[in-house]
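Input record (one chain):
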Amino acid sequence: MSKRNYMNIAVQEPPLDFSFRSIHIIQDLLSEEPRPGLRPLKHSKSGKSVTQTLWLNNNVLNELKDFSQVASQLLEYPENLAWIDLSFNDLTSIDPVLTTFFNLSVLYLHGNSIQRLGEVNKLAVLPRLRSLTLHGNPIEEEKGYRQYVLCTLPRITTFDFSGVTKADRTTAEVWKRMNIRPKKPRVKQEAL
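The corresponding structure, as predicted from the sequence alone:
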């Protein structure tokens, strides 16, 4: 099957669903059976799933070590992952491995333990990211949480399950001007 045909089929495919499986480490996915969906999963000749959706929500993951390698073993085209659900786990940061999936358009990270608002900066490299959830993390309590995320990720259209309006964008821009100082170019001091 050509990659182009795969892309058309995979968009309609059910998710590879490992939610509610008490998964502690990513490698557990290789020995765990995905949850059965309403429609059966399609597989390639090599036995790998042909889907663009991976659900790992409601587990006990606290890191994503070996995520890329495991995704490559489970998915025919892991680089085409468009939706990853990692909600309700124990993640304390946004793992840089997520930024390697350039086709990612939906990322659910709500209900984790992400501590630093600056973690959001890592996601700015994802050109297709349109929907993001982060509520239920400690960062939600930080002043300017929504505005910071919208400034950092101007392409997202849905944040924490609510649409991003023009008014949201305006408020975020005003907030940015008032709260984020532009970096001043460093002037090298000449040695005296």
